[in-house]
């Protein structure tokens, strides 16, 4: 599904990803761990096609298509979803309206009919119930005045509504408390399916107690240095990054 080969990419002329390889199959949950500054968020942004991130080598294909040639909108339409590490607040725009626009933008790009306001509200209420978002948060402005936990739930709601094939969650540095970690984990577990894959970027070994990943990667110095099963996260907790990636020069 997702195939990243020898990816070199960076921002503002600085190379951050230095030959990164990663393959994700349908239905798999991959966790990427790694020390601060190893380029984990950069990888997420490069996959989503964020402005300013330049690919200088290697390839990224998704369902056989060259992702690097696609606009962010085309990537979303293809089913790639990036949850924001720091969710944006959008005063003046109702959450339900924002979500419907996001869904309809994807539908339009796919050449599918748009969803009417009434049909969307029905869908949204169903999804909100599934992921545990209170109804009043649907009417409020996007993330505006939401607590940290409510923002996390809202992010999971976006995921539930947009139904991506590949969801990338970057939880690094975001200071999640244990309840928010649980929210993310429950959301991911509920939305896991044989067709949907996840890349969960995290500092927190604890998150992986709740989301049991199929594959764990350790990223350092812009490369995936180690890959293994879920036990790799435990080993990492025990030994620390230095011991696990110590042999690799910066
Ligand atoms: P991680 O998510 O693993 O902590 P990042 O992808 O955020 O790592 O950052 C990787 C490296 O790239 C860091 O050294 C960081 O300082 C640098 N970096 C990130 N964003 C920028 C930017 N906009 N301009 C220059 N350097 C950046
Ligand atoms: Mg960081
Ligand atoms: Mg980061």
TrEMBL record:
PANTHER family: ABC TRANSPORTER I FAMILY MEMBER 6, CHLOROPLASTIC (PTHR43204). It comes from the Bacteria. InterPro entries: AAA+_ATPase (IPR003593), ABC_transporter-like_ATP-bd (IPR003439), ABC_transporter-like_CS (IPR017871), FeS-cluster_ATPase_SufC (IPR010230), P-loop_NTPase (IPR027417). GO terms for molecular function: ATP binding; ATP hydrolysis activity. SUPFAM superfamilies: P-loop containing nucleoside triphosphate hydrolases. The keyword ATP-binding applies. Keywords: ATP-binding, Nucleotide-binding. The lineage of its organism: Bacteria, Pseudomonadati, Pseudomonadota, Alphaproteobacteria, Geminicoccales. Residues 2-246 form the ABC transporter domain. This is Iron-regulated ABC transporter ATPase subunit SufC. NCBIfam families: sufC (TIGR01978). It comes from Arboricoccus pini. Belongs to the ABC transporter superfamily. Ycf16 family.
């Amino acid at each position: 599904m997702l195939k990243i080969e020898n990816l070199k990419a960076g921002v503002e002329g600085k190379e951050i990803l230095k030959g990164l390889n990663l393959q994700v199959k349908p239905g798999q949950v991959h966790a990427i761990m790694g020390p601060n500054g190893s380029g984990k968020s950069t990888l997420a942004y490069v996959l989503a096609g964020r402005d300013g991130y330049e690919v200088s080598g290697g390839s990224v294909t998704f369902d056989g298509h060259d992702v690097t040639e696609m606009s962010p909108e085309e990537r979303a339409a293809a089913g790639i979803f990036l949850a924001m590490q720091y969710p944006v607040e959008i005063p003046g725009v109702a959450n339900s309206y924002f979500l419907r626009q996001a869904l309809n933008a994807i539908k339009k790009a796919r050449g599918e009919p748009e969803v009417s306001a009434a049909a969307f509200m029905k869908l949204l209420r169903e999804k909100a119930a599934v992921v545990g978002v209170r109804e009043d948060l649907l009417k409020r402005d996007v993330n505006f005045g939401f607590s940290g936990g409510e923002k996390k739930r809202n992010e999971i709601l976006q995921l539930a509504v947009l139904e991506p094939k590949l969801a990338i969650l970057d939880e690094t540095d975001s200071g999640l408390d244990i309840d928010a970690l649980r929210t993310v984990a429950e959301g991911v577990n509920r939305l896991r399916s044989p067709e949907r894959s996840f890349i969960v970027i995290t500092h927190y070994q604890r998150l992986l107690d709740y989301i049991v990943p199929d594959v764990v990667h350790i990223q350092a110095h812009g490369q995936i240095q180690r890959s293994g099963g879920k036990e790799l996260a435990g080993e990492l907790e025990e030994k620390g990054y230095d011991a696990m990636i110590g042999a690799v020069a910066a």
